[in-house]
Amino acid sequence: MEVSLGAIPFDLDFHPSSPIVASGLINGDLHLYRYSVGSRPERVFEINAHGEESCRAVRFADSGKKTTVASGDDEGCIKVWIPDSMLVATPLMPMKIMSLT
């Protein structure tokens, strides 16, 4: 599988039960691709998840009913996404991790 992301990837994660892969990019974007053997991956979701900050981490959390993706950036901001119909998403639970030092 080869995909042109348009920016440097920092992280990727494969969905635990569906043929979907998520990528977090240096430009703050979060992309989801559906893939299958013998065909090109199809981008099914794209959002600038973290503005000017890099999207440093992506992880799937499979509830069995909805695809849920968590992403994190340089500033410690974590966002949880439920892509509605894989076309539009709003962060379900944005939070900022603060340093105790």
TrEMBL record:
Highest taxon of the lineage: Eukaryota
Signal peptide feature range: none
Gene3D superfamilies reported for this sequence: YVTN repeat-like/Quinoprotein amine dehydrogenase
Pfam family membership, one: WD40
Listed name of the protein: WD repeat-containing protein 55
Protein's organism: Carex littledalei
